[in-house]
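Please, structure for the following, as tokens.
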Amino acid sequence: GNQTTFLIPSLLRDDLPANKGYQCVFDFSETFLPHGLFQRLVCLCLEYVARNTMGEDSVIRKNYAKLNKFRGQDIELWEDKAHQKIKVSTSGDKDDIVHVVQSMLFKINIDVMNGRLKWRTIVRKKVKTKKSVPKSENIRTDLDGFLNSL
């Protein structure tokens, strides 16, 4: 039949796999990383994956998520509570992943925090392609239909 499934991230286990490195950090340490923000971000990412692919074999923990087939590659997110950061790692070098996740943070900031949330975006990985990294505004426009439907 037609079953409804609910994800309650705050009730998940808190065991983390080893961090194999990351391409991007969203650093909230100059202000604060609100409780529940990471879980909201994971839920948005899961919804995005579900609308675009089946997203099987995703791994979700309280402070970690590995999502398969996120814009064609695997993505891992870690919440570093001690340092007030969210770390993002991808399986490939697709340029727009960071912009997609950042657009989701913008949505959470507007919808939940009334635009008061501040963070720095630090990209650690050099992009090996010759094409330019897409501007956040372009990716945001591409995601508007998805983000506005939530």
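The CA atoms of residues 27 and 85 lie 5 Å apart. The radius of gyration is 15 Å.
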